[in-house]
Amino acid sequence: MSSDCIFCRIVAGEIPATIVYQDDQVTAFKDIQPQATVHILVIPNQHVASLNEADRLDPALLGRVLQAAATVAREAGIAESGYRLVTNTGPDSGQTVHHLHFHVLGGNPLRLPLG
Amino acid sequence: MSSDCIFCRIVAGEIPATIVYQDDQVTAFKDIQPQATVHILVIPNQHVASLNEADRLDPALLGRVLQAAATVAREAGIAESGYRLVTNTGPDSGQTVHHLHFHVLGGNPLRLPLG
Q1: What's the alpha-carbon Rg for chain A, to the nearest Å?
Q2: Do residues A81 and A106 lie in contact, with contact meaning Cβ atoms separated by under 8 Å?
Q3: Does the residue B89 lie in any domain?
Q4: Does some domain include residue B73?
Q5: Which residues of A touch B85 (CB under 8 A)?
Q6: Of A98, A115, B52, B58, which is most buried by a Cβ count within 10 Å?
Q7: B10-63 pLDDT per residue, tens
């Protein structure tokens, strides 16, 4: 845990958030500035800054984050209508919080193109 | 392998593609309709339709797909400038090929919002 990381503090329960899923490896909570009808963030409880540090995590943990994202989408009722999973890394992407997080976006038709 | 899946056929070498990374579990190749300066698709060699079927895959395999995406971004020279990783699931997202795939997009500032 990084004590100055807002997402680590959400995992630890030190900052309030609307948590929709949590286990010993993964936490999911509603984005406070939603960019779609459904907008949930799914994160590994373990702190890494971004996908650039993916090699520092156990591959099975990374995979469980993705499986949790699918679970969260199903429980939000958007598995069949569709959703987008996004993780941003670095300045060109608009990454603002430097704790690896996956956006689950859905509940309405999503914009294209992706880039 | 699904014989009518274009991505399975790319993995098998039956359809040409500009492959930038391949091992026994993961394949990455250039998107033929790029939506950013760098646009690479990273897929598990094993066929699943989308993230909705993530539970059918070994979590460690899913994690290795993400680690390969980070490797591909580094080799494309966009690890520091930044990139976005996206997977689309179902109609609202614009998913067109029904083999789980992650878009790696970068090389220029990417659009926001995400939804």
Answers
A1: 14
A2: yes
A3: yes
A4: yes
A5: 51, 86-87, 89
A6: A115
A7: 999 999 999 999 999 999 999 999 999 999 999 999 999 999 999 999 999 999
Per residue in A28-47, pLDDT tens? 999 999 999 999 999 999 99
- Cβ within 8 Å, pair A82-B90: yes
Q: Which of B39, B47, B99, B101 is catalytic?
A: B101
φ, ψ of residue A72 to 5 degrees: the values are: -60, -40
How is A6-19 classified by DSSP, letter by letter?
HHHHHHTTSS---E
pTM of the complete model: 0.97
Contacts of B88 (CB under 8 A, 6+ apart): A82, A84, A110, B50, B94, B95, B103
Using CB atoms and an 8 Å cut-off, which of residues 38-57 of chain B contact chain A?
Answer: 39, 51-52, 54-55, 57
Q: Is A35 on the interface with B (CB under 8 A)?
A: yes
Q: Which domain holds residue B16?
A: 6-106
Kindly write down the DSSP assignment for every residue of A74-108, as one continuous string. Answer: HHTT-TTT-EEEEEEESGGGT--SSS--EEEEESS
**CATH number of A100's domain:** 3.30.428.10
CA–CA–CA angle A36, A40, A42 (5° rounding): 145
> What six digits make up the tokens of A115?
């880039």
User: Residue A111 domain-assigned?
Assistant: no
**Single-letter code of the amino acid located at A112:** L
CA distance A16 to chain B (A): 24
Residue A112, in any domain of the structure? no
Q: How many domains does chain A have?
A: 1
CB-CB under 8 Å, A111 with B92: no
